[in-house]
Design goal:
By secondary structure, this protein is mainly β. It has a single domain (about 1-250), classed as Jelly Rolls (Sandwich). About 5% of the residues lie in helices and about 40% in strands. It has helices at about 10-15, 225-235; strands spanning about 1-5, 20-25, 30-35, 40-45, 55, 60, 65-70, 75-80, 90-100, 105-110, 125-130, 135-140, 145-150, 150-155, 160-165, 170-175, 180-185, 195-200, 200-205, 205-210, 210-220, 250. The strands form 5 sheets. Strands 3, 6, 7, 9, 15, 16, 17 and 21 form an 8-stranded antiparallel β-sheet that branches. An 8-stranded antiparallel β-sheet has the order 4-5-8-18-10-11-12-13, with no helix packed on it.
Length: about 260
């Protein structure tokens, strides 16, 4: 089993500000949550599409870039309506930074689940990025076919960037920009969901909730390339100079705060 280490250098963790600019192609951006509000119960969607998230039983804390949301298990989660309701390209990419804090069972980082939608009657759990009880990444790529990546593992107290891209009948899963899983076992067409997009829980409020932190959440309606996943990992959404879901979003590298 390979233990996935943080991609960050010691210089970044020590508080050095990196000023290199990266221009990211944000075509197909559905939603982007920097999680930088620092107070209140709203996580703003800066994509321009208006899919703001509502946080229940969460707390604000230091994140990878700026602030992050701390989820505390139980009913703690973020929900945003409409995010997964339209996938015109039959493709999706989603991801976030996360940190486990007290891991004992299945925990959801990102979730999209609607009963009875998909290829199997009564199906649920269409889009999930989770961690299983043995600290292995665990995902669902358009349907309730649970996949644990047995040869990879994560740890408590460490920030990881977790992403999944689905398109052209294939799924690729990344941790810290490294491919950890590839498969053609995906539903086709990909289901569109009327239920909310979830952060900090795996299926619904109270079902596989996270005790930990989440930062920099994104969703696209296309399959990102590996290069794009790495560019997103290395750029703060909150440091953007302009947001245009139809074109380019220039992003600046920001100071990364030390892992808590």
């Amino acid at each position: 089993m390979r233990n996935i280490g943080m991609w960050c250098s010691a210089a970044i963790l020590s508080g050095v500000v990196i000023t290199s600019a990266v221009a990211l192609d944000m075509s197909g951006l559905i939603a982007a949550y920097p999680m930088d509000e620092g107070s209140g119960t709203t996580a703003a969607d800066i994509s321009g599409n208006g899919y703001d998230g509502v946080i229940t039983d969460g707390a604000w804390t230091s994140g990878v870039y700026g602030e992050a949301v701390e989820f505390t298990g139980g009913q703690s989660h973020m929900a945003a309506d409409g995010v997964l309701s339209s996938l015109p390209n039959n493709a999706i990419s989603l991801g976030a930074w996360f940190q486990l804090q007290a891991h004992t069972t299945y925990e959801g980082i990102i979730g999209g689940s609607e009963e009875g939608v998909g290829e199997v009657s009564g199906e649920c759990c269409q889009y999930r990025l989770m961690v299983d009880p043995g600290f292995a990444p665990f995902y669902n790529a358009g349907g309730h076919q649970d996949v644990a990546v047995a040869d990879a593992s994560v740890e408590e107290g460490v920030w990881y960037h977790y992403a999944m891209t689905i398109g052209d009948g294939a799924v690729t899963v990344y941790i810290d920009g490294q491919v950890i899983a590839e498969s053609d076992a995906v539903n086709d067409p990909l289901p569109e969901l009327a239920t909310p997009f979830l952060v900090g829980t795996g299926e619904s409020a109270g079902t596989w909730p996270l005790t930990g932190l989440v930062d920099e959440v994104f969703v696209y309606d296309r399959a990102l390339s590996g290069t794009e996943v790495n560019e997103i990992m290395g750029a703060s959404l909150a440091s953007s100079t302009a947001v245009d879901a139809r074109g380019k979003l220039p992003l600046q590298w920001a100071a990364m705060k030390s892992a808590r």
